[in-house]
Amino acid sequence: MKGAVSLDERGGIVSAFDMGTHGLYVWLSYGVSALVLFFLVLEPFKVRKKMIKDIHAKRIRMEQRQENLNNAP
Amino acid sequence: MSVPSLRISLRSIFSAEVQLAFRSKRQFFNALMFFVLVLVLFPLGVDPGKAFLAKSAAGLVWVACLLASMLAIESMYRQDYDDGTLEQWVVSGQPLFLIVLVKNLVQWLGTGLPLIILTPLLATMLHLPSEHIPLLMLSLLLGTPVITLIGSIGAALTVSIRSGGVLLFLLVLPLTIPVLIFGTAALNAAADGLPSNGMLTVLLLFFVLAISLCPFATSAALKMSVEQ
Amino acid sequence: MKWTFFHKLGSPKWFYDLAERWQFILLGLGLLLLCVGSVWGLFFAPPDYQQGDSFRIIYIHVPTAILAQSCYMMMAAAGLVGLVWKMKISDMFIAAAAPLGAGFTFLALFTGAVWGKPTWGTWWVWDARLTSMLLLLFLYFGVIALRSSVTQVEMRAKASAILVLVGVVNIPIIKYSVEWWNTLHQPATFTLTEKPAMPVEMWLPLLIMVIGIYCLFTGLVFVRVQNEILQREQKTKWVQALVERGGKSR
Q1: pLDDT in tens, B70-90
Q2: N or C: which end of chain B has fewer CB within 10 A?
Q3: Which of B174, B185, B224 faces C135 most closely, judged by CB atoms?
Q4: pTM for the predicted model, two decimal places
């Protein structure tokens, strides 16, 4: 097991975040995956919010139109 | 009124379709021209050298053939849909998948066959070794009906969509990849001096699978398009 | 009664409430498992003796690839149910799952390509798995494109069900063709199958990631199916009442 920070053979501090020489690749894949997953999670909730607002607005519009019709002479 | 026998009605559909195809030759002609033009573009755009062309001729012909067939298939059921013929077929009580088979046969006679007939000319222009031309034609003979059969599913699905052209390509092309792979593999094997019977057998298998499964999917899609 | 469950599935309101109850549990559990699995895989699993640390990409690549493939199978099953029993919920499932499937397929492809760079030396190889994943991505795009160009609800349901079923019949053919084609063109590439079995501390985080991503997927499907229900049932009384409450189920 390797901890977050350890010592290399010569006693220098190496960070586990370096991932040997492959840091770029590992962090690139994890970063992009995190971004895509966050988008996939947030998107439907955003759609929901907008949808509820739209349905509500539509209903108020309908009610107003009905009222206008009733009030018309 | 008695229902006409299946054989008679299929035959009449076939002859009517052939006549229609002859009347609207422009569309089949367009596909053929597209096929030729795509193949002319490669020497001009990539490399007119004999070494490159001889190596890639079979693949180029196959890809161009695939695209040209798709182009023609797009409007396969369009007219039948617009003038209500499709609806008549659905309610006629005749098994729809047989009518679909007849349509596919006519479609293939209109596009696939001319492409194959034109192939020796273009293959020669692309420096394909002449002893491989019959094999190329044979692989196309087995492969183009499969392309037509699969494409006809996509055409049936998109018949009621006005701008279905690009959509059809997106739906159908991924499904035709196996045919392309084995069609060109037969030629590549022959170019390496290996027997290509195995690949041709697989193509034949694809043909049998396609002809026995695709018409059912197509007729389901046609029924759906009419019922809406 | 055994069949009440089946009948309830046909009731949008019942399913909406069910989804409401489960979505946050599933989403939370999924995200938690994904975090645990990632941290474990990134920092505590031992590096691979051949590939070093780049093998840690496996903890994203394999779960997303598994889900990408099984998502299409689930869509096909839903398509079959939709065609046979005309259940609306199955079409809603296809609508909800297709974009998710495309997203996960993209991730599997992307991580595969990034993994390929240190392993094969190039970002992209026409490797059998990458190629068939690419074709799977196009199949997902096809479903999404078809759905967005058909507006009539029942027709859209039938069309996408037929398309998904045709696709699922083709997937094994495509897969084997591509594999066969690949062995023809690339006889000597790095294969993962010829390695000794993974030690526990390597595959346990992988298992956690797989379970986590399935939880996340199920939760997201619930949320998206709810959106579909709201869209389609917006004229009904219960949706109107729900909107009045600001979207709270109860």
Answers
A1: 988 888 888 888 888 888 888
A2: N
A3: B174
A4: 0.87
Residues 186-215 of C with CB under 8 A from A: 201
Verify whether the Cβ–Cβ distance B170 to C145 is below 8 Å. yes
Chain A residues lying within 8 Å of C103, measured CB to CB:
36, 39-40
pLDDT digits (tens, 9 = 90+) for A49-65: 998 888 888 888 888 88
Under the banding of pLDDT at 50, 70 and 90, the label for residue C9 is low
Alpha carbon distance B188, B68 (integer Å): 22
Sign of CA dihedral C240, C241, C247, C250: negative
Q: Residue C179's closest CA among C165, C158, C193?
A: C193
Other residues' Cβ atoms within 10 Å of the Cβ of residue A30: 20
Rounded CA gap, B186 and B122, in Å?
A: 18
Span A23-48, average pLDDT: 90
Number of CB atoms found within 10 A of residue B165's CB:
14
Contacts of B163 in chain C (CB under 8 A): 149
Query: Closest Cα to residue B89, out of B11, B2, B13, B5?
Result: B13
B63 by Cβ neighbours in 10 Å (0-12 / 13-18 / 19+) ranks as: middle
C-alpha span between A24 and A14 (Å, rounded): 16
Check: CB of residue B222 under 8 Å from CB of residue B159: yes
Instruction: Say yes or no for a CB contact (<8 Å) between C184 and B164.
Output: no
> What is the enclosing helix (H) or strand (E) of A13?
strand A13-15
CA angle, A61 as apex, A57 and A64 as ends, to 5°?
140
Q: Report the DSSP beta bridge partners of residue A13.
A: A7
Question: CA of A70 to nearest chain C CA: how many angstroms apart?
Answer: 22
* Chain C neighbors (3+ CB pairs < 8 Å): A, B
Do residues C31 and C216 make contact, with C-beta atoms less than 8 angstroms apart? yes
The H or E element that residue C90 is part of is helix C88-120
> Residue A14: beta bridge partners?
A6
What tokens does C181 get?
A: 């084609």
Smallest CA-to-CA distance from B125 within B57, B38, B174, B183 is with B57
pLDDT tens, B87-139?
888 888 788 888 899 999 999 998 899 999 999 999 999 988 888 899 999 99
Is residue C135 within 8 A of residue B174, CB to CB? The reply is yes
User: What are the helix (H) ranges across chain B?
Assistant: 6-23, 25-45, 50-73, 78-82, 85-91, 96-110, 112-125, 133-157, 165-191, 197-227
Name residues 180-209 of chain C within 8 A of B (Cβ). 180-181, 184
> Which has the closest alpha carbon to C66: C33, C28, C107?
C107
Backbone angles phi, psi at A15, to 5 degrees: -95, 140
Q: What is the CB-side half-sphere exposure of residue C19 using CA atoms within 13 A?
A: 26
CB B98 within 8 A of CB B6: yes
Tokens of C116: 């390929």
